[in-house]
Backbone:
């Protein structure tokens, strides 16, 4: 199991509680969210999904949190949605599936994309289906050498969900995205890095240390500038040039009101390292 920081004894919860589904610890402005259903390769239940959405929302709003690391316990990062819950029984009314996706998997991916703090995925093992999309929605992706990414939907006769058809073409281009989605073959971590889905592949025993080092660098950065940069990049492929340029100018206008922007200019003039406070 990857050695990530545990919550303090005051915040630890019984193993069968909703809070235990995602371990949560914050240290030196870095929050670590650890999916904690190792017996199911961290497959996502409705309770786990809602807990994760809540944690991302809280991290986004908390000025003391300046970077987030998302990882998993055991052999898997996340095996996708847990399909063993029996929720498919009974009569299905038209609109039920779309509503379930809109209020469920899509909200989860949106919580990552919209989080105002940089999010690092530390992919410790298999990331399949919704689990792969959860990792790829993060701003930076580190993968342990044994990790794999699988667009598993076609194996189940399903259409990709959780934003996959939105994320993958933007990361890979349409042909590569279709190849992964049409065949459902497992993609090794080195191949994912070669294609540009992963920023870096590291030995399994170095994943936690590398993720923490990256998060620590982000946590001392200009947090508001990073949030605005994330927004500009995430929306750039959905806008025309004029709209993108207008958004860039507005982001610069907003950012120039922050203490960190003033500190950045002062440190340059004074020829010293900046001391950003995330404000």
Residues:
């Amino acid at each position: 199991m990857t050695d990530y920081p545990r919550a303090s004894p005051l915040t630890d919860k019984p193993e069968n509680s909703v809070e235990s589904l995602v371990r949560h610890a914050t240290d030196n402005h870095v929050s670590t969210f650890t999916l904690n259903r190792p017996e199911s390769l961290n497959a996502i239940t409705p309770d786990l999904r809602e807990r994760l959405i809540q944690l991302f929302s809280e991290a986004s709003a908390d000025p003391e949190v300046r970077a987030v690391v998302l990882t998993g316990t055991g052999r898997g990062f996340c095996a996708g949605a847990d399909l063993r819950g029996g929720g498919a029984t009974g009569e299905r009314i038209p609109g039920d599936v779309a509503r379930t996706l809109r209020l469920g998997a899509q909200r989860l991916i949106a919580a990552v994309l919209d989080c105002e703090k940089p999010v690092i995925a530390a992919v410790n093992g298999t990331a399949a289906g919704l689990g792969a999309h959860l990792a790829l929605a993060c701003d930076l992706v580190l993968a342990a050498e044994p990790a794999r990414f699988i667009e598993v939907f076609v194996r189940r006769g399903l259409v990709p969900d959780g934003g996959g058809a939105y994320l993958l073409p933007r990361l890979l281009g349409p042909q590569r995205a279709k190849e992964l989605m049409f065949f459902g073959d497992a993609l090794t971590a080195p191949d994912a890095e070669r294609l540009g889905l992963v920023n870096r592949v590291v030995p399994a025993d170095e994943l936690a240390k590398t993720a923490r080092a990256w998060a620590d660098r982000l946590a001392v950065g200009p947090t508001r500038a990073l949030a605005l940069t994330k927004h500009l990049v995430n929306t750039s492929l959905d806008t025309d040039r004029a709209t993108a340029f207008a958004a860039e100018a507005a982001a610069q206008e907003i950012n120039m009101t922050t203490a960190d922007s003033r500190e950045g200019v002062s440190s340059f003039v004074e020829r010293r390292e900046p001391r950003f406070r995330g404000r």
Summary: The chain is about 45% helix and 15% strand. The two ends are 36 Å apart (CA to CA). Residues 46-61 form the longest helix (16 residues).
